[in-house]
Amino acid sequence: MTQLLTAEQVTATPADKINTMINQAFIYDDFAWQKEQQLRITYPKRAEGLHKVLYQCPHCHTEYQMTSSGTQLNCVACHKSWQMNEYGELVALDGLTEFSHIPDWYEWERSNVRNEVQNGTYHFESKVTVESLPNAKGFIPLGEALLRHDMDGFRLSGNYGNEPYEMIKSVDSMYSCHIEYSYLGKHGDCIDLNTLDDTYYIYPYGQPFSVTKIALATEELYNHKKKKPS
Ligand SMILES: [Zn+2]
After folding, report:
1. Are both 30 and 130 inside the same structural domain?
2. Distance from the alpha carbon of residue 51 to the mean position of ligand 1, in angstroms
3. Residue 24 shares a structural domain with residue 108
4. Ligand 1 centre distance from Cα of residue 207 (Å)
5. Which of 70, 215, 216, 219 is the most exposed place for a label (fewest CB within 10 A)?
6. Domain limits at 217?
7. How far is the CA of 64 from the centre of ligand 1 (A)?
């Protein structure tokens, strides 16, 4: 286990960096460690960005309508709110606290994605902006494209110049998916897809979405396929 932040580090670390660390901490279950150690994080914006990970409301089950600000997480659909206390636990402001431990909420989201995969209904489609990074010389803007993620994996279709292109990543070619929250502060959240000689940075837009769900679905699709070879 790693310590999330010492009191001295909290003072010395920029706000956006702290948010990134908090968002990623659940992966290693640093929240359990924080609670055990009774380590207090008094940072007033400690819940900001958490809605990107906790994208589904456990009260009304609506996806992509969570927001966060200050120490609070909120659902725009049913108006339920949770407070993140100084020990990294969530407490509902009114009624039942579904998940006080952040990783439990995340695993609940995963189980919902797993159900969609097992039922064969998982599907995501969105307009996207694409950039590629074929080498160290810099990003090449590839303009707009369409991204589909479903039971067959990823399919990216677009035009570069007048040439149509398509990139397909099958379910069994990816056991996980690299995502970024507000990558380089440019277009927002993105999904990275790699070919042998290129990396595509794919930014969905124009509709509510969560790159966290796409990453969970990538893992669950892979696990499902491995269990049931065709
Ligand atoms: Zn809700």
Report:
1. no
2. 12
3. yes
4. 18
5. 70
6. 123-227
7. 10
DSSP 20-85: HHHHHHGGGTHHHHHHHHT-----TTTTTTGGGTS-B-TTT--BS-EEEETTEEEETTT--EEEE-
pLDDT tens sequence for the chain (230 residues): 445 555 566 556 555 565 566 556 555 566 666 666 667 777 888 898 899 999 999 999 999 999 999 999 999 999 999 999 988 899 999 999 999 999 899 999 999 999 999 999 999 999 999 998 887 778 889 999 999 999 999 999 999 888 899 999 999 999 999 998 875 666 789 999 988 888 999 999 999 999 999 999 999 999 999 987 65
Residue 2 belongs to some domain of the structure: no
Q: Phi and psi dihedrals of 203, rounded to 5?
A: -115, 105
**Residues 140 and 111 grouped into a single domain:** no
How far is 87 from 39, CA to CA, in rounded Å? 6
How far apart are the CA of 59 and the centre of ligand 1, in A? 5
Q: State in Å: Cα 226 to ligand 1 middle.
A: 34
Ligand 1 center to 133 CA (angstroms): 38
Query: Could you give the CA distance from residue 105 to residue 201 in angstroms, rounded to a whole number?
Result: 28
User: Do 102 and 176 belong to one domain?
Assistant: no
34 Cα: distance to centroid of ligand 1 (angstroms): 27
| 96 plus 165 within the same structural domain | no
**CA of 16 relative to ligand 1 center, distance in Å:** 26
Residue 44 structure tokens: 């007033």
